[in-house]
Amino acid sequence: MADSRHQMDYTRLLADIPIPQHSRQGSYEVLLELIGDLPRGRALDAPCGPGLLSEALRRLGHEVTAGDLIADGFIPTDIPFFAMDLDAVFPFGDGAFDLVVCGDGIEHLENPFSLFREFSRVLADGGTLVVATPNYLNLERRLKFLWSGSITKPLARSSGGAPKDKSGQGHINPLTLIRMAYIAETTGLDLVRSTTALRKPRQFALAPLALAIRCFRPFLSDSYRRDLFAEHTLTMGALLGGKVLLAVFRKPVLEERAPRLQVLGTRALVQPESSVEKKLPTHAPVRQPARSNTSDTSFASVAHVNTAVVNTVSGRIGAQSRRVRWQRHRRGCDRRLE
Fold first, then answer.
1. 98-129 b/e with 16+ CB inside 10 Å = b?
2. How far apart, in whole angstroms, are the C-alpha atoms of residue 333 and residue 330?
3. Would you tell me the crossing angle of helices 27-35 and 52-59 to the nearest 10 degrees?
4. Cβ atoms of residues 245 and 177 within 8 Å
């Protein structure tokens, strides 16, 4: 009952804001519910679109900054707006925000690794990142990929070979939760919660297939389940989830990151004494004895003779060893045939 009350509150909040919603109806309500219990602070909404979510965050008590590729269409006049390319470096300092919201943006970008690095950089320690993107993990999407070969709607090919304008790109980089969580982890962010919104009733027809996948989970190794983020991706909610995926990431505070950094620093900077000892190269040059000016000819002739003898003996020994190895090999083959 409490969840329904909060849902209705966020629905009413959004309805009272005279700004159009470009994302799917119902997704913002779930997003606001995810961050409803977070402490109020500095928030970044990027990409912000016309500014509906930015205004909702402001009315909830956050100090909001909005950002998008172009300013055309951004309606709120009392919220700072920054024209920014999410594929480039953000125009903000390190740790500038306590909350970052990225709604329906990551699937349109060329470099999600760069995006998450910037999210991690501008987030303060203990800050929260919320990402909303199409849910490519549910079974309906997987079956569509099975017969079409495309995890999302194919991109419309431009006529005449002319590239489309960047602001009109489709879903050029669809990310599953597994890949998105991996990218976030490599940039210092931890996946702490995930959910979906806008579930279709026909999804329940795939429940038997979801149960079969769930039964297969115990046979996976611990490391494989860890790499799959199985606690988020192999649940019934994920397999039968709705159209929109919402993932919540957290940037650990410095004390939580210290042990990890200390281990990495120790490995990189502290080496055992045996590893820093000087070692001779594998083919170290042999120091020749000093030669006198009066015996250069004799030393050269002796060296030439010695070299010839060594080469002859080495050649004979090498040929003999090859014959021995061949004979042993033939005897072994004969015994196996018998």
1. bbbbbbbbbbbbeebebbbbbbbbbbbeebbb
2. 5
3. 30
4. yes
For the beta sheet containing 97-103, the strands, ordered from the edge strand earlier in sequence to the opposite edge, are 81-83, 63-68, 42-45, 97-103, 123-134, 244-250, 190-197
The string of DSSP letters for 42-106 reads EEEESS-TTSHHHHHHHHTT-EEEEEES--TT---SSS-EEE--TTS--SS-TT-EEEEEEES-G
- Per the structure block, which two tokens stand in for 195? 């959910």
pLDDT computed for residue 260 by the predictor: 55
Cβ atoms within 10 Å, residue 238 = 24
The per-residue pLDDT for 239 is 87
DSSP state, residue 240: T
In 3D space, the residue among 36, 40, 46, 27 whose CA is nearest the CA of residue 3 turns out to be 36
pLDDT at residue 119 in the model:
97
pLDDT value at 231 more than 60: yes
Greater model confidence, 261 or 51:
51
pLDDT higher than 60, residue 106:
yes
Q: Is 104 left (phi over 0), alpha (psi -120 to 50) or beta?
A: left
- pLDDT, mean over the chain: 77
State CA 74 to chain mean position distance.
31
Q: Express each pLDDT in 47-98 by its tens digit.
A: 999 999 999 999 999 999 999 998 888 999 999 999 999 999 999 999 999 9
